[in-house]
Amino acid sequence: MSPDPKKPLIKATDEAEPKAERSAAPVALVVLLALMVFGGMVYLGNNAGGFNAQVYGPFKSHDEVKGAQPVSKGGEALVLGKKVYETCAACHMPTGVGSPTVNAPPLAGSEWVVGGGPNRIIRIVLNGLAGPIEVNGKAYGAGAMPAFKDSFSDEQIAAVLTYVRQEWGNKADPVKPETVKAIRAETASKGDNWAAPDLLQVSDK
Amino acid sequence: MSATPSTQIISIDRGNEAPAVTSVQIDASCRAPVLLLFISAAAWLLIGSLLGIIASLKFHSPNILASCPLLTYGRVHPAAWNALIYGFAIQAGLGVGLWVLSHLGRAKLAMAPLIVIGAILWNLGMTIGTYGILYGDSTGFEWLEMPRYASGILFFAYLAIGLAAIVTLHLRRERELYISQWLLLAAIFWLPWIYSTAQLLLVFKPVRGVMQAIIDWWYINNLTTIWLGFTGLAATFYFIPKIINRPLYSHYIGIFIFWTLAIFGSWGGIPTGSPLPTWIPALSSVGAALTIVPVLAVAFNVHKTFVGNYSKLSSSMPLKFIAFGALAYVLSGLVGVLASIVQVSEVINFTWFTPAQTQFVVYGFFAMTMFGAIYYIVPRLLQADISSAGVRWHFWLALIGVLIYVVSLGVGGVEQGTVLNNPKATADFMGVTNSTLPFLRASTTGDLFIALGHLVFLLNLVGVLVRVSRASFSTAMVANRRAEVRA
Q1: Which residues, including other chains, have CB under 8 Å from residue A155's CB and lie 6 or more apart?
Q2: Which of A172, B178, B334, B406 is at 20 to 30 A from A127, Cα to Cα?
Q3: In a 3-state reduction of DSSP, which class is residue B111?
Q4: Beta partners for residue B116, in sequence order
Q5: What is this model's ipTM?
Q6: What burial letters (b/e) apply to B150-163, b meaning 16+ CB within 10 Å?
Q7: If DSSP states are collapsed to H, E and C, what string results for B239-278?
Q8: What mean pLDDT is predicted for residues B367-375?
Q9: Residue A16 to residue B11, Cβ atoms within 8 A
Q10: How far apart are CA B144 and CA B44, in angstroms?
Q11: Secondary structure (3-state) at A104
């Protein structure tokens, strides 16, 4: 870049644009790339948490994350269920003995509650029940339980039924919100209350 | 392979298909737009480094300029970086890119008036954006601090210049593509994509929570690795063979670099300790580690092109700048790969090492390469020499400055991280932070050297412009007088 006036600034090489030789890329580079890709895969296998969005550091896998979660023993459902049961207690009484004056049958020890699966009682809570019903060999007259499908969510219904199935000496499996959701969808078109004979047609399992 | 006599590859005698457009004609078509981009870039570089010194001073002398809200650290620092990245780096890169595209295509620069309008718009956006940041309108996203009323202008200014670049490439007379054209074309398309995506998802319709951090990291990494990387490498692969007058060692290695960087280089940038689902930082680390392959390929291709001709370094200042840039690319690339390893990044995370690494890439590699390219191009645009003493001063000031800066903050960062990660260390956090002060003072010294170099750079460009315009003025006067005498 010396300022020499005699030297022409534009050299002959200016007209020639650079060309590239077609030398082959060294195999070592390709091998290195392959090795690095392999190493990268191994690293991802060990450290990417199975590409699961719930795995954060320092955890390495979803199983590890699941193991660190507090395990529910249904305790939360019972607390929620007890709360929701306050509505039911008006007729079925806080102790689940029912109230013959309003034709509300007992829940404690009732075969409708603890017998088999929750198929029928979920339907009763969703759509209500009208007309006579026999519980534990005792007939109850024409009572009327209203539908609760619009008042309670699936989770609330599952919780209250779990509570009812496990309180006052009752010992039945908890009810899952998914089961309630499925039955709610199945019976979505039913507008009126259930009658006991129709319910007996529904499988108990 | 490289033993092939160079004359067989680079041949001035092109037989019957002699180029209809000469280099001089192409230079004439580039003169106004490219010079405008270069002078603006140099001006922003100086503004950026002055703001950078103010920001750097705040760490050890917080009382300086503390009473002026415009000049508090939170505003000066982003303003300095935006001036360096958008004011200097992108304008210089576009100027060099346009010149290289038109020369490699042996065609005149297309749509020069559109480029001039684009450059004016870009500088308008830069001015508004810098004021916006200093005024307090920063968006708060790293490298995207400019408020939306400025970023919109920048976006459309870039589209105008990018369109001209694509048309220039399309109208090329030399059909065969050189590797620099691949790299430049990709860079031209890459920025509007990442810039609009980041603006849309962060500023105009913000995503929530940590997604914001992911997008910002993605943007910064793509701007650095792909835009600055591709544009800088395009200049490296163009100017080194051109100046030493030998062909580039291998076209295929160039293509290999292009694809590996484009595919894997764009994943990096997300720190290993970030509070994200682990697969994101893990994938990012793998991408960053994979870039060791293109980095080594660059080193190999440049070395094989140079081999036996390293002595030419002493005869050409532009070559010195560009060779230093290539060296810094390889070294900073290797450091980046090292930093992607979890055990290393645990130490250097949240320390001074990060700015040192960024500065090494942006300044040591990209800016130095651009300086060399500009010092090669400007004398040809103006048909006049730049003061060689000035260029030499710039080179040594920049070289010493960047080395002081990178080494001091790099070493300081490693020391800081080691103490911070030592559970048995007795020093508290403030004590550790205070112990980095000598390194910070050293980095300010580096900044001062760099800023002086930038002053020399601007003076060099303005100096040759003034000389040329004076000379053409007196030539015109002489012609005038002759005409009068004849009359």
Answers
A1: A80, A177, A180
A2: A172
A3: coil
A4: none
A5: 0.84
A6: bbbbbbebbbbbbb
A7: HHHHHHCCCECEHHHHHHHHHHHHHHHHHCCCCCCCCCEC
A8: 97
A9: yes
A10: 17
A11: strand
Query: Under a CB-based contact definition with an 8 Å cutoff, are residues A33 and B261 in contact?
Result: no
Q: Is pLDDT larger for residue B189 or for residue A199?
A: B189
The pLDDT value recorded for residue B404 is 96
pLDDT digits 0-9 by tens, A120-172: 888 888 888 888 888 887 888 777 888 888 888 888 888 888 888 888 888 88
Which pLDDT does position B379 carry in this prediction? 93
Q: Report whether B216 contacts B81 (CB < 8 A).
A: no
| Contact between residue B216 and residue B142 where contact means Cβ atoms under 8 Å apart | yes
Distance CA B165, CA B114 (A): 10
* 3-class DSSP state of B470: helix
pLDDT tops 90 at residue B378: yes
d(CA B129, CA B123): 9
- What pLDDT is recorded for position B283? 94
Q: Testing the interface with A: which of B103, B244, B279 to mutate, by most A Cβ within 10 A?
A: B279
Distance CA B146, CA B130 (A): 7
Amino acid occupying residue B167: V
- At residue A73, the pLDDT reads 62
- Chunked into runs of 10 residues, chain A (205 residues) has average pLDDT values of 47 75 91 96 92 88 86 72 84 84 83 81 85 81 82 85 84 83 84 80 74
As a whole number of angstroms, the distance between CA B180 and CA B174 comes to 14
pLDDT band with cut points at 50, 70 and 90 for residue B22: confident
- Rg, Å, chain A Cα set: 36
Query: Which CA distances in Å does A203 have to A128, A195, A199, B76?
Result: 18, 15, 8, 75
pLDDT in tens, B310-348: 998 988 999 999 999 999 999 999 999 998 888 888 888
Instruction: Count CB neighbours of B3 within 10 A.
Output: 5
DSSP B207: P
Name the residue type at position B262.
A
Domain ranges of chain B: 21-176
What's the confidence (pLDDT) of residue B258? 97
Phi/psi region, residue A131 (left: phi>0; alpha: psi -120 to 50; beta: rest), is left
State mean pLDDT over B206-231: 95
Burial class (CB in 10 A: 0-12, 13-18, 19+), B334: middle
Interface of B with A in 270-329 (CB under 8 A): 273, 275-279, 281-283, 285-286, 289-290, 292-293, 296-297, 300, 304, 316-318
Chain B residues inside the 8 Å CB shell of A43? 282, 285-286
Query: How is residue B260 written in tokens?
Result: 């590996």
The alpha carbon of residue B113 and the mean position of all alpha carbons in its chain are separated, in whole angstroms, by 24
Question: Are B254 and A20 in contact (CB < 8 Å)?
Answer: yes
Burial class from Cβ neighbours inside 10 Å (0-12, 13-18, 19+) for residue B180 reads buried
Please choose, from the candidates B100, B24, B4, B85, the residue with its C-alpha nearest in 3D space to the C-alpha of residue B51: B85
